[in-house]
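INPUT
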Amino acid sequence: MALRLYNTLTCRVEEFIPGGEKKDKIEDYPPVTIYSCGPTVYSYAHIGNFRTFLFNDLLRRYLKFRGFRLNHAMNITDIDDKTIAGARNEKISLRNFTGRFTGIFFENLKMLNAEDVEHVPRATESVDSMIDILTRLHEKGFIYTKEGSLYFSIEKFHAYGKLCRLDRSGIKTGLRYDTDEYEKDDVRDFALWKAEDDPDVSWDTPFGRGRPGWHIECSAMIRKIFRGTIDMHTGGVDLIFPHHENEIAQSEAAYGDKFVRHWVHVEHLLVDGAKMSKSKGNFYVLADLLEKGYSPRSIRYLLISAHYKKQMNFTLTGLEQAGQALARIDNFTARLKDRFSSPEDCKELRECIEVFYKNFTDSVDDDINISMGIGAFFDFIHAVNSLIDGDRLSAKDAAGVMDVLRDIDRVFGFIFFPGETKSSLDEKEIERLVNERNSAKEKKNFTEADTIRDSLLKEGIILEDTKSGTRWKLKK
RNA sequence: GGCGUCGUACCCAAACGGCUAAGGGGAAGGUCUGCAAAACCUUUAUUUACCGGUUCGAGUCCGGUCGACGCCUCCA
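OUTPUT
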């Protein structure tokens, strides 16, 4: 089966074909070129933002899992009205201001176990490419000037509105436009370059000093990194219009070739059934949730677990349930550390593994149906648990299952692997106490045994007695 | 006002017209165990907001009603 993805441009699920030319084997495809709209670094990113960014991460991890090579860029929007206003408020340079929030953003992503992407361009470092676009658009007559600002004339670009679900007439008659606010010929036109109003955040161009409009930044960074047509462009649904529509217009008008083959948009996250807002008190950034004691793993699991094209309702209850689901997985990995006595390798296990891989890839190949993929994973855990209960696994089998977990975690990124402990007690000390408790148990001195168990529990270590001995795990 | 999405059990969430509507959480009973925990087994939607229609067959398609949400404006 091939990977199929919904394309906003065509409004349907399509096979994903990097380079636009179908190959027999995935390895034969050129590296997948992806551009993901990144954050505007004027404040802390909230969990709604992270749903989108974690989807990008899931998508890239799955592409790699399936054998595609990647060339993935996510930009940092470090110049726009909000970053300028923020820097001005704090009376610091734009660079210092955006640098701080950029740093926090990447720390957050790391905590959520998102992989680094290949390119992280910044708008302020891509002005030369913007000038190239402006020059070409100017030569081709798509630009007009008003009071030192450059605007893109939509009338001149006939394909405008081709991104799915766009009705040109609807845009024009939108009720909430305040046309008086603009100096544009047509309300749908957009600013490519804004006239200088602050010498500290201005660049020279053949068309005068100023700063970029928002939309041109992405077009410029894409051109700079990838040169021509890219395979995939991702972002939140709110960017479809006008941001992505405008990117298509200016890029295709300037260069003539197709801008993006496959558009992928992630639905919004709601919190407690409503849009996040500070007044409602349902506005969360990552630090808020960590303070409440939730783990980044739970947050990652929850934000990833629902289908990306569906609005998702975020609740603290949901986070707790995600934590419980992870605990089930953790118990499984802890169990795989036990001693396995079966002398023979289990044939059924091999079947389980095959079935799991097939179900998993079939599911996720289908427009990243990760919910079903996770379902397949729990089916696998269940099946293996049953085999363990029946004393069917050899030590080699158990190691094989561990390999499967490591392999699949290249996609999930939320499985915890024991051995990477950070307890205050070291492992030898724990083993010693476990042995001490076991000899107490043999002497039927249960009071002493329970005392040891309780004291370990206080250190965050849970003991479990099994047929093959006592195992310990870290408390969540 | 225009365009669009969605409404599946106590909660979260799959199911691309066709065997008994995945999976996770929670709950209940059982097995194992000194106890506990974990795991395993069993149970928890004759039914998919509601009303009609198309079809041999619909959660899935069509029409209507109610409800939630999004875009049309800076926004992941």
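end of record. Residues 315-412 of chain A form a domain with the Four Helix Bundle (Hemerythrin (Met), subunit A) fold (CATH 1.20.120).
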